[in-house]
């Protein structure tokens, strides 16, 4: 068993995730949550590579301008329920610039599937997760990174987003239920047990 005082390497984390029992039909659904700008997408991409190219569902493809967080029903119908039946999920990624849904995209019921984005650890999804990981970064730091990344043209959007995200996590926090905490360090990532590390599935 991994020592709680020593961080996990990504290869070891990948091996541990593969060894978990399925949590959604044949799938081990792994969530990566955290504040906008905290590095979820980059971390999920690197973890997916360690998992031999595990599929990644990005919640930026599910949310819309009108439904920043009110997308649970659509996610359940289009993604969670099909994966639970061992079928491929089919969803239409949202185009944030064109403000409409794009062509259908398929998400296969692989052994491990990653779901990353703000709200990935929400209470409606937690029963289907094999593990919930939280990107450990202060929200002000993460938001500043996100604003710098997206530039001045997205300033008005970010002003609204910050209010919506703060409201979401006040009503439906993820961090207290995280099995693992992920922190970016100069040499990569530090992965340590979260508050829910001892919670059994």
The fraction of residues assigned to DSSP E strands is 15-25%
* Shape category: globular
Q: Count the E strands.
A: 10
Average the pLDDT over all residues and give the rounded result.
Answer: 93
Order of helices and strands: HEHEHEEEEEEHHEE
**Poorly predicted tracts of residues:** 1-5
CATH fold assignment: Rossmann fold
CATH architecture: 3-Layer(aba) Sandwich
Describe the overall structure.
By secondary structure, this protein is α/β, with parallel strands linked by helices. A hairpin with a 4-residue loop joins strand 4 (94-95) and strand 5 (100-101). It has one domain: Rossmann fold (3-Layer(aba) Sandwich), CATH 3.40.50. The chain is globular and about 45 Å long. It has helices spanning 10-18, 40-50, 72-84, 139-150, 155-171; strands spanning 28-33, 56-58, 89-91, 94-95, 100-101, 105-107, 112-116, 129-135, 180-185, 188-193. Helix 1 crosses helix 2 (40-50).
């Amino acid at each position: 068993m991994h020592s709680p005082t020593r961080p996990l390497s990504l290869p070891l984390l990948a091996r541990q995730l593969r060894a978990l029992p399925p949590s959604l039909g044949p799938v081990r659904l792994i969530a990566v949550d955290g504040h906008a700008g905290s590095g979820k997408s980059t971390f999920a991409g690197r973890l997916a590579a360690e998992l031999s190219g595990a599929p990644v569902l990005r919640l930026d493809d599910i949310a819309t301008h009108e439904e920043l967080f009110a997308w649970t029903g659509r996610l359940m119908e289009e993604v969670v329920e099909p994966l639970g039946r061992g079928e491929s999920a089919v969803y239409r990624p949202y185009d944030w610039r064109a403000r409409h849904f794009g062509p259908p995209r398929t998400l296969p019921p692989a052994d491990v599937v990653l779901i990353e984005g703000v709200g990935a650890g929400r209470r409606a999804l937690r029963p289907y997760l094999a593990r919930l990981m939280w990107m450990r970064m202060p929200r002000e730091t993460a938001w500043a990174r996100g604003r710098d990344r997206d530039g001045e043209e997205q300033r008005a959007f970010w002003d609204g987003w910050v209010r919506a995200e703060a409201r979401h996590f006040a009503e439906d926090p993820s961090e207290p239920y995280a099995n693992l905490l992920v922190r970016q360090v100069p040499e990569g990532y530090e992965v340590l047990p979260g508050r829910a590390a001892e919670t059994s599935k």
